Amino acid sequence: MNQTFNTPSGPLLFEPGMEHLEENEAETDASLEDTMRGIRETTFEHSGHANRSVHAKSHGVLFGTLTVADNLPSSLAQGLFAKAGSYKTVMRLSTLPGDILDDSVSTPRGLAFKVIGVEGDRLPGSDGDVTQDFVMVNAPAFSAPTAQKFLGSLKTLAGTTDKYEGLKEVVSRFARGTEAVLEAFGGKSATVVTMGGQPATHILGETFYTQTPFLYGPYVCKFALAPVSPSLKALTKKPIDVNGKPDALRESVIEHFGQEGGEWELQVQLNTGLEAMPIEDASVPWPEDKSPYVTVARISVPAQNAWSAESKAAVDDGLSFGPWHGLAAHRPLGGVNRTRNGTYTNSAKFRGSHNGCPMHEPRSGELLPG
User: Fold this and answer.
1) Can you tell me the distance from the alpha carbon of 22 to that of 19, in angstroms, rounded to the nearest whole number?
2) Alpha-carbon distance 153 to 191, whole Å?
3) Quick one: pLDDT at residue 366?
4) Which of 61, 66, 87, 338 might form a disulfide with 311, Cβ 3.0–4.6 angstroms?
């Protein structure tokens, strides 16, 4: 049955009927969790350390301040952004696979950050906490339209976990070449990039996206984080040498923040119509000509040691980042997000129990290592 939703000239108001369950969604969720658990158990068996099921390798841990813009219009002054203010934040840069790979196997990059000291009505499972998490990847849309389609890709990725790193490097070089050809003709392949076709460029020059939709108070949105300081913008698409450098990305982050800081803008894209901006198909980039990304906050990070034993212990082993950890005003939407609720929680529990370091949530005023 066709449904008609509000058709405003401005942002679309969220209505519950905009979300709908996939066929066999519960079975898909269970299979996704089984696959994720298999990745965790494989890497733990081989390394003796429990890593995240995805985005296992960290390339930098950064501590800074998020400042919400003053005098935002009412449509943007929602949730975390309802009023001007400054919050401590911790950021983690990563790459996609669940195993710790040489950086010559070049895969999609991630950036997750946690805003500390956020008050308000909470999402289930984060009651009593005062943090808001954002989980992002360096592409505007997800690699699959639905959780069911994503399951097939994840099983392929899981089959490569902890196996044949030399072969992965060869495949990655081939994939990077293929991706360069595609981009030269105006195309891009999510599959090629996921399997190792990510260009070998500086991670700090990337723009990161939530890819999936979220509530934005009464509205629907996607978020992005874009480098804005000149020193970071200069790194966009800047090649780095990954050959013979297993931790080239981390070394590049350490080098930059050892000398100077950096700033990003946190941006929001409000949904203005479901036909062009679907909620349940995560693979569709929302057209910016219909609704541009607008800045609502800025993250400032001073010069610091971007990687240390202390920050690794505090963030890689002691913190989790998940899209369902935060304010009810920013509830995740759509099938891909629904399935992430359990998988992120179970990954954090696995790491906590196997590493003997239960996850914790920082609070306002708590000192974080720098």
Assistant:
1) 10
2) 8
3) 57
4) 61
The residues that bridge with 115 in the sheet, in sequence order, are 89, 132
d(CA 38, CA 86): 40
In this prediction, residue 359 carries a pLDDT of: 84
Q: Which of 263, 260, 248 is nearest to 304 (CA)?
A: 260
Q: What is the pLDDT of residues 2-21, one digit of tens each?
A: 566 675 568 999 999 999 99
Contacts of 226 (CB under 8 A, 6+ apart): 207, 208, 264, 265, 267, 293
Q: Which domains does the chain have, with CATH numbers?
A: 24-353 (2.40.180.10)
Residues of the chain with pLDDT under 70: 1-5, 7-9, 156-197, 364-370
Residue 4, pLDDT score = 60
| DSSP for 304-365, written as a single string | --S--HHHIIIIIIT----TTSSBGGG-B-SHHHHHHHHHHHHHHHHHHHHHT-------TT
**Lookup: tokens for 263:** 């700033």
* Model pLDDT, residue 158: 66
For residues 150 and 143, the answer to whether their CB atoms sit within 8 Å is yes
Burial level of 369, CB count in 10 A (0-12/13-18/19+)?
Answer: middle
The position carrying tokens 């939530």 is: 210
Nearest of 3, 12, 19 to residue 290 by alpha carbon = 12
